[in-house]
Amino acid sequence: MVGRIVRMVCVLALVPLSVDADNWPQWRGPQQDGVSTAKNLPASWSLEKNIIWKAELPSWSGSTPVIWGDRIFLTSPSPAQRPEEQEPGGPEIYILCLSKKDGSELWRYKLDEGNVLRRKHNKTSPSPVTDGAHVWVITGNGVVTCLDMDGKAVWSRDLQEDYGRFGLLFGYASSPILYDGKLILQVLHGMRTDDPSYVVALDASSGKEVWRKERPTDA
């Protein structure tokens, strides 16, 4: 029961002294080192202690929420069709935007379909990235989408359609990096495919390929 509650509820603890802290725009934070500049943060929690609000999510996800200003972005599958322990969630894959103030849902956007369980994670494991004007996200199926802050799609493309199917034993969970106007993604695989591993940089504003580097590997 406790495991199911943890999977279904997103809990964010905030204190007034952390309101002006840096944004958390990507996996592992502003400097990608997991360190926040916020001070005097709570160090312990319970079901009630140091909890400002709770928001029930459609299902569970291994991705990291990212924060910009008063908005929180995170991914989730649709609700599970069978509430079983190894259920990956429903078939649809969403990105959600919540209010940092009270956890209310501001919008959600359907990114993809075909969510499945891959060992101990599903197709929503990659974390989004944002620059405060747009948010980018990739699903475990390789569908990359750029949206504005109000949840309107700017562009979308499918890495498996463009560069060949993934050959991954444990599923795809790599989070994108935003750098110098480019969205950088890596696909490291070597099973059930003749296509080499690669790193690709997409123009963040249009989704067009800027460069792509193959990385042959037997991994």
Radius of gyration: 18 Å
Total domain count: 1
- Give the DSSP E fraction (strand runs of 2 or more residues): 35-45%
The total of beta strands comes to: 14
Give, in order, the helices and strands: HEEEEEEEEEEHEEEE
Helix content: under 10%
CATH architecture type: 8 Propeller
User: Could you give the distance between the termini?
Assistant: 38 Å
The strand line-up of the biggest sheet is: 3-4-5-6
Topology-level CATH name: Methanol Dehydrogenase, Chain A
Gist?
The protein has one domain (2-215): Quinoprotein alcohol dehydrogenase-like superfamily (Methanol Dehydrogenase, Chain A), CATH 2.140.10.
Can you tell me about this structure?
This protein is mainly beta. The protein has a single domain (2-215), classed as Methanol Dehydrogenase, Chain A (8 Propeller), CATH 2.140.10. The chain contains 2 helices and 14 strands, in the order H-E-E-E-E-E-E-E-E-E-E-H-E-E-E-E. The strands form 4 sheets. Strands 3-4-5-6 form a 4-stranded antiparallel β-sheet, with no helix packed on it. Strands 7-8-9-10 form a 4-stranded antiparallel β-sheet. Strands 11-12-13-14 form a 4-stranded antiparallel β-sheet, with no helix packed on it. A hairpin with a 3-residue loop joins strand 7 (129-130) and strand 8. The longest helix is centred in the N-terminal third of the chain and has 7 residues, at 2-8. The model is unreliable at 1-10 and 12-20 (pLDDT under 50).
